[in-house]
Amino acid sequence: MNKFILGVAAAALGLSTQFANAEETLKLGLSHALSGPAAYFGTNASWVAQKAIDRINESGGVKVGDKVYKLETVGYDNQYTAAGGATAAQNMILRDNIRIIANSQSTSAVIATQAITERAGALLFTGVWGRSVKGPEHPMTFTNLNSPPEILPPLYKYVHETHPEAKTVALLNPNDASGQEIAKEAVIQWEKLGFTVVSNDFFERSTADFAPIATRILANNPDVVDVGGTPLPNAGHVFGEMATQGWDGIKIASAGSEAEALIKTGGDAAENTYFGLGAVFSGENATDTQRELNEMALVELKQPLNQATIAVWDSIAALKAALEKAGSTDPEAIAEVLPTLVFESSYGPSGFGYADIYGLPNQMLLPVIISQVQDGKVVELERIIPEEMKSKM
Amino acid sequence: MSTFIQLLINTLQIGAIYVLFSLGLTLVFGVMRLINFAHGEFFALTAILIAMQMGWLLPDAPFWLQYVVSFATALGVLMALSVVIYQFGLSRFLGDLSSGFIFSLGLVLMMRGLIGQIFGNYPMTAPPLVEGAIYVLGGAISTQKLLVAVLALIATGGLLYLVFRTKLGMALRAIAEDQEAAMLQGIRYKRLALYGFLIGSSLAAIAGGLIAPLQVVLPTMGGELIMKAFMIVIIGGLGSIPGAIVASFLIAALESFGSYFIDLPVVTIGVFVMVAVLLVIRPQGLLGHVVR
Amino acid sequence: MLFDKLNLLFLATVAASVAYCLAVPGAFFVQVILWATLAATLGAGIRFVMLVGELNIGTSAFYGIGGYTAAYLTTAYGLPFGVALVAAGIAGGLVAAVFGYATMRTSGAYFMLISFAFAEIFRMLVVESDFLGGNNGIIGLFVSVEYEPYFAATVVAILATLISALAVIENSSLGKSFIAIREREEIARSVGINVLAIRVLCLVISSVVIAVAGACSGFITHLVTPNDYTFMIAVFALAYVKLGGEEHPTGPILGAILLTLAAQYLISFGAYQQVFFGTVIAVAMILLPQGITGRLRDLVRLTAKRTARDAG
């Protein structure tokens, strides 16, 4: 047995040195959930990442100094857990010698990944929300998706101005890290606008029937129901139950991204729901890149893309620009260059900023898109480009 | 008053599915003396097969016909799969709790992964067959949910008839009463255990088929339900049919009333603690008898 | 004779692993050794309770109690690694004593399900406990920088010692009374064995070992969260036991090593990893009902018989 282990060990070592010598390709890590309830986010994001590097490789790769690199992705299933995230990160850093992780999902997995990548000086991109994953303690971490502090103020302001008579709001979120994070932020932002938060509930992700929760929320007869980070297929059932039980108020899904799924499960009850992260890429407001990708996804994945799954496209676009500007594949050099960039994201010109919120300019500057269900379709109402981005352009 | 009625209605609609699902689990335990973890996968697979077929199998037919046809094919697939799983796997572990448990867990990992790869991991839905809602004394229930609850109760009635009024049912109950004597019967026992297993699996499948238009359909949906079913069969007593029925509505009522008056996560913990305490003072469950 | 060889093989594997961890402390394969060691400890721990005839799904909760105790003490009070391990073991043992006293009166399917409920209660309570970080868990279990090169070797050495201790207890008179209780409870009772006390003791010993392994797991991922301690931990532990064979203490270790190595190979399959793992478990249950060590023993006996017959 020990001989066997040593043999495997030798093989593993041999493999890693072999990878270290390969110079023409640059490996980008992906830490996605490929199994479990969040698997479709991971599967779809992995697909987007492949399209992103395909496009770059077809147009000649990335020029770093006088070398040209082809990109390649190496993905691991982080199982949406801390232990899974740590295993994936150790595989990427120690086994595959990867120093750039282009995308990572799940708050727990990302926190565990950071414990490894920050120490190893590796670059990490993620779309998770928590304020704790960002900021000066994690200088090598960059985020590629709008999060509650960016989304909620303009979204709530819009709703407040459209419905000045509304005064009370009920919050509902999944009972996990991202749900708790958004609830905290939502209470602050609603109260800033003078609203009374009449209830602030959490449900287990395993909840199947939402009738009891609907009854509980409606007991306070709120003007607004904000289902925050609730997965939108479930949110459709929540709104459906509420409609059955006779409620017809203002519906907000502030941070869910699968808008079309909400329409499918909610039916008529989904009508007029507002989204803060639910932009769809089939409409006229989407960019050409987004529309094209979305059409390919409909053919190959048989489902549309959303803001969460397309995010990896933008981190790879940012990486390409940073690699070329830095003239080096050294993660520290890239991290230094990233905040100074203006690059072409899938939404149009973008950069990094929000140092005023997080203490470091590591959050991608993306437009906040407010949309709404109208006649069974998601319609874009307003696209707010951050002031910081405007001043960069 | 109307809130109370609403909570009662919620209890009924949740409980109806719990009953169907956990009856299957407890029946399988009764005749095979093993806890089939893959019960939840049968449930999920049926729901997925139905959600998949609706829309392309008979795209021009009315919804109810599409639903009936896809339900029937899904049930057929599940029965065939159950026979295979029994013949090549579970029949080797009759009465062997730990091996049967691990084997069925291997099945769960296999099936869940394969279902995700074959049908996609994204949430699906089956369209509702009927629209609208019905109002009773100030409480409301969507017509679709009422239909499902009624169908579930009819299926439960059918099972009770089968178990308590037919020859097959009598034989199955005899096995559950005295496992060792039954096992001595050899081949006959194996065949009866297969029937018991098929009935149990079809209950999971029916529950999955009924829930498809009501709930987000995902490959992991069975794993979530089976946790609750475990609690239900413990409370009711392993192998006890009346126990499973009582416990299903008890848990449903706790969830419905509890999540209204207290926090839902707290209720979930409360249910587990209650189960643990119950097991300590009355290990055989509410209506079970001691199984050795 | 076969089992003596297996014991030797175990010691040789441990020695080789410790040496490798010391020689190349930063290598990826050190991580694999650590994962295999944790898995082996889990398998040995869950098998230990099987000596009195029970399947303890609560193993995952005791693993978590160890992880959380270590995480809380290191982050809140800055206690060092060694102290955290001892504290984790004590916490695991204490909780096991209380839990065991209440539940070890039940047996069979009921104990299995009650321990299952316990595993879920533990996870949900942690989610609801703000001082344990709720869903986010506790981050920051690091050993000091100077100590880091020795960390992996220490973990392997400590856990291997604990696994060996379990095997020693199994062969002592205490271990004999465990098996006596499993095989003939009434007779054990009639000769004056306090069945409940011995059963609880068995659970406590197993849980101390599991909790220490849990504490080590926290230092390996640097983070503990509720979802790292679901009942699936116990499920995999049982898979190690079943694949390796439950008759001999080296069985779960063999199973743990094989499945951990398989996982390294399978991880590059992404989503199919789960499918392969499930298939390995299900097929092994059918083809090797006695596990690998059980199969080996049968083969050895068969050969011995043949040789004897040929000689005679």
* Cα-to-Cα separation, first versus last residue of chain A: 62 Å
Largest contact between chains? B-C, 46 and 41 residues
Beta-strand content estimate of chain B: under 5%
Distinct helical segment count of chain A: 14
Specify the oligomeric state: heterotrimer
Radius of gyration of chain B: 19 Å
**What's the count of strands of chain B?**
2
Q: What is the total domain count of chain A? A: 2
Q: First CA to last CA of chain B: what distance?
A: 46 Å
SS summary, helix count of chain B: 11
Strand order of the largest sheet of chain B: 1-2
Low-confidence stretches of chain B: none
Provide the gyration radius of chain A in Å.
Answer: 22 Å
Helix and strand arrangement:
The complex is a heterotrimer of chains A (393), B (292) and C (312).
Chain A: H1 2-21, E1 25-32, H2 39-58, E2 62-64, E3 67-77, H3 82-95, E4 100-104, H4 107-120, E5 123-126, E6 141-143, H5 148-162, E7 168-174, H6 177-192, E8 196-203, H7 211-218, E9 224-226, H8 232-244, E10 250-253, H9 259-266, E11 274-275, H10 288-300, H11 307-326, H12 331-337, E12 343-345, E13 348-350, E14 352-353, H13 355-358, E15 363-364, E16 368-374, E17 377-384, H14 387-392
Parallel strand pairs in A: 1-3, 1-4, 4-5, 5-6, 7-8, 7-9, 9-10, 10-11
Antiparallel strand pairs in A: 2-3, 11-16, 12-13, 14-15, 16-17
Chain B: H1 2-32, H2 39-53, H3 63-88, H4 97-119, E1 133-136, E2 139-142, H5 143-165, H6 167-177, H7 179-183, H8 187-211, H9 221-236, H10 241-261, H11 264-281
Antiparallel strand pairs in B: 1-2
Chain C: H1 2-23, H2 28-50, H3 59-77, H4 81-103, H5 108-128, E1 138-139, H6 148-171, H7 173-183, H8 185-190, H9 195-221, E2 223-224, H10 232-244, H11 250-266, H12 272-287, H13 291-311
Antiparallel strand pairs in C: 1-2
Helix pairs in contact in C: 1-6, 2-6, 2-9, 2-10, 2-11, 3-4, 3-5, 3-9, 4-9, 6-7, 6-9, 7-9, 10-11, 10-13, 11-12, 11-13
Detailed description of the structure:
- The complex is a heterotrimer of chains A (393), B (292) and C (312).
- Chain A contains 14 helices and 17 strands.
- In chain A, helix 2 runs parallel beside helix 11 (307-326) and helix 8 runs parallel beside helix 9.
- The model of chain A is unreliable at 10-22 (pLDDT under 50).
- Chain A has helices at residues 2-21, 39-58, 82-95, 107-120, 148-162, 177-192, 211-218, 232-244, 259-266, 288-300, 307-326, 331-337, 355-358, 387-392; strands spanning 25-32, 62-64, 67-77, 100-104, 123-126, 141-143, 168-174, 196-203, 224-226, 250-253, 274-275, 343-345, 348-350, 352-353, 363-364, 368-374, 377-384.
- Chain A is 45% helix and 21% strand.
- With 292 residues, chain B is mainly α.
- Chain B has one domain.
- Chain B contains eleven helices and two strands, in the order ααααββααααααα.
- Chain B has a two-stranded antiparallel ribbon.
- Chain B is globular, with a radius of gyration of 19 Å.
- The model of chain B has no long low-confidence stretch (mean pLDDT 86).
- Chain C is mostly helical.
- Chain C has a single domain (2-311), classed as ABC transporter involved in vitamin B12 uptake, BtuC.
- Chain C is built from 13 helices and two strands.
- A two-stranded antiparallel ribbon of chain C has the order 1-2.
- In chain C, helix 2 (28-50) packs parallel to helix 6 and helix 6 runs antiparallel to helix 9.
- Chain C starts with a helix and ends with a helix.
- The model of chain C has no long low-confidence stretch (mean pLDDT 90).
- At the B-C interface, helix 4, helix 9 and helix 11 of B face helix 5, helix 10 and helix 12 of C.
